[in-house]
Design a protein that fits this description.
Layout: E1 20-22, H1 27-37, H2 47-53, E2 55-57, E3 66-67, E4 75-76, H3 94-99, H4 105-120, H5 130-150, H6 158-162, H7 168-178, H8 182-191, H9 195-221, E5 224-228, E6 232-234, E7 237-247, E8 253-262, H10 267-281, E9 289-294, H11 301-320
Parallel strand pairs: 5-9
Antiparallel strand pairs: 1-2, 3-4, 5-7, 6-7, 7-8
Helix pairs in contact: 5-7, 5-8, 5-9, 7-8, 10-11
The protein binds zinc ion.
Zinc ion binds near residues 5, 7, 12 and 60.
């Protein structure tokens, strides 16, 4: 996707911060946009390509082309057609077009030659598939999750709902929608309701992927130490944080966070549950575990001891056989 306007010599999206709008997917309207912006090099591109990669900036639309939303967002009406262009050759309202027809004859002929192809090409009538749209939508969502993660910003806060405010995730998402990401807007409108569930899934996928890579590296190294930290309480529930210490590919000792496991239930059941989580679900091989350290104090220390014993039992069992 281009981060600037498709009109030649237009500064929209470059030096001039303007909202950018995708070319319409619907081929007839896409052609209308294309006719206006005089980019012959784009004439033989199918609508779905233009939709994906080209943008027009807000300067080319009359105020009446926008959905009025009290300045909250910049959204084009479904039938909006750009009409405002600087250079005389492109300043064509339907009125002006007829008048200037003689002048632009030469250009028209050139244009027509090139236009012949897309007219017969079925591709220009094929709209972007649902699958492509979903893919692009998911890509945007993942980008937001990763951006937040990389900056240590929580995507949501349990307080958000109480105080009836937007989550960080939603705020970033709407920012992207307002800057002209039409697929995102459409998909967001369709999926808003399911959103909290969807976000949970997204984060889970990211978490699994990152942990998968880490466990893979630990396994290649051959052995590791298992560490746990003090219990943490999230939304009223207790979790045990797990870390792994190992020597990585560059021969450096590393300590990395593996994940949180719910910490509830009675001693024996809990010990089994914790072990199952880190071995079956996360893929750690206990025969590679050469040490462990836990820093739990107080009332829960007996549960941790039970778990530690279970780990020892499992790793010894594995090597003694
Ligand atoms: Zn522009």
């Amino acid at each position: 996707m281009r981060g600037h306007c498709a009109v030649q010599n237009c500064s929209g999206g470059k030096s001039d911060s303007q909202p950018l709008f995708r070319f319409p997917l619907e081929s007839e309207r896409c052609k209308q946009w294309l006719d206006k912006c005089q980019r012959e090099d784009l004439n033989d591109k199918p609508a779905d390509q233009l939709y994906k990669y080209e943008r027009l900036c807000g300067k080319h639309f009359q105020p009446s082309a926008f959905v009025d939303s009290e300045g909250q967002s910049v959204v084009l009406k479904d039938d909006a057609v750009p009409t405002i262009f600087d250079s005389p050759a492109t300043a064509q309202t339907s009125h002006g077009k007829r008048k200037e027809a003689g002048k632009v004859d030469e250009k028209d002929i050139k244009g027509r030659k090139k236009m012949k192809k897309p007219d017969t090409e079925p591709a220009s009538n094929t709209p972007v598939s649902e699958e492509d749209e979903n893919r692009e939508y998911l890509k945007s969502l993942f980008e937001i999750v990763l951006l937040l993660g990389g900056n240590n910003i929580p995507p949501t806060d349990p307080e958000d709902e109480h105080e009836n405010r937007q989550s960080n995730f939603q705020a970033l998402l709407e920012y992207r929608i307002h800057s002209g990401d039409e697929t995102l807007r459409k998909k967001w409108d369709e999926n808003k309701e399911k959103f909290p569930e969807e976000l949970k899934n997204l984060i889970e996928v990211c978490e699994q992927y990152i942990r998968g890579k880490l466990v893979e590296e630990v396994q290649q190294n051959g052995h590791f130490s298992l560490l746990t930290d003090e219990l943490v309480i999230i939304s009223g529930e207790m979790f045990l944080p797990f870390f792994v210490r190992f020597v990585d590919k560059s021969n450096c000792q590393r300590e990395s966070f593996l994940g949180l496991v719910p910490f509830s239930g009675d001693e024996d059941v809990l010990a089994e549950k914790l072990l199952a989580e880190i071995t079956e679900k996360w893929g750690l091989k206990m025969e590679q575990c050469k040490g462990q350290a836990h820093s739990c104090s107080g009332t829960h220390s007996s549960k941790i001891k039970k778990f530690a014993a279970k780990v020892t039992e499992n790793s010894q069992q594995q090597y003694s056989v």
